[in-house]
Amino acid sequence: MNKSILQLITKRRSIRKFTGEAVDRELLATALRAAMAAPSARNSRPWNFLVITALDRVKAICRAHPYAAFGEEAGAVILPFGKKEGYAWFDQDMAAATENLLIALANLGLGATWCGMTDQIQAGIRAVVSLPDEVFIFALIPVGIPAELKEPRTQYEDARVHWDDYSTDS
Questions:
Q1: Dihedral sign for Cα atoms in the order 78, 52, 36, 19
Q2: Looking at residue 44, which CATH number applies to its domain?
Q3: What's the mean pLDDT in 42-61?
Q4: Is the pLDDT of residue 78 over 50?
Q5: Is the pLDDT of residue 170 over 50?
Q6: In the chain, how many domains are there?
Q7: Residue 122: which domain range?
């Protein structure tokens, strides 16, 4: 594999400390272009992205999620969302777009963390952003200028790779 490709991917780390500075809108748009380059079953592209940059709303959204309070100092929040009902490949398509987004953000010099979403967590977030009930918020992603530095890494383990068939001896 081309080492530069691996470097692009391993640069993505969960960043939970931000400077509080605003995030350039063009950088966010570039990352969203990468997100929408993700594969999608039957080219359905179920994704939409709500980008919040008003700092009072960023704080409110992060407080509404039980594991996102660290994002209160982020310069933006991105909420990938779409119509999940009746679409069997929603989670796969949304996960691919979200990972593309995170890799792009990291390589644009921004920090971000993927905060998972459940039906229960959505109610508090909907109160802040007014999304309709028929859409599912797939994730909450605080985005900002990093106030921490994490080295690129892979978590590769030979023991988790099985060549040609499954064996616990692989």
A1: negative
A2: 3.40.109.10
A3: 97
A4: yes
A5: no
A6: 1
A7: 15-146
Apex CA 2: angle with CA 149 and CA 151, to 5°?
10
> What proportions of the chain, in percent to the nearest 5, are helix, strand and coil?
40, 15, 45
Q: Output the six-digit token pair for 161.
A: 């790779």
How many Cβ atoms are within 10 Å of 35's Cβ, its own excluded? 23
Asked whether 76 and 68 are in contact (CB, 8 A), the reply is no
Distance CA 99, CA 95 (A): 6
Average pLDDT over residues 57-65: 97
Give Dmax over CA atoms of the chain in angstroms: 54
DSSP readout, 26-79?
HHHHHHHHHHTTS--GGG----EEEEE--HHHHHHHHHHSTT-GGGGG-SEEEE
Please check whether residue 117 lies inside any domain of the structure.
yes
Q: What number is the average pLDDT over the span 99-105? A: 98
* Mean pLDDT value across residues 45-54: 98
Count of beta carbons in the 10 Å neighbourhood of residue 6: 13
pLDDT of residue 167: 73
Residue 38 pLDDT level (bands cut at 50, 70, 90): very high
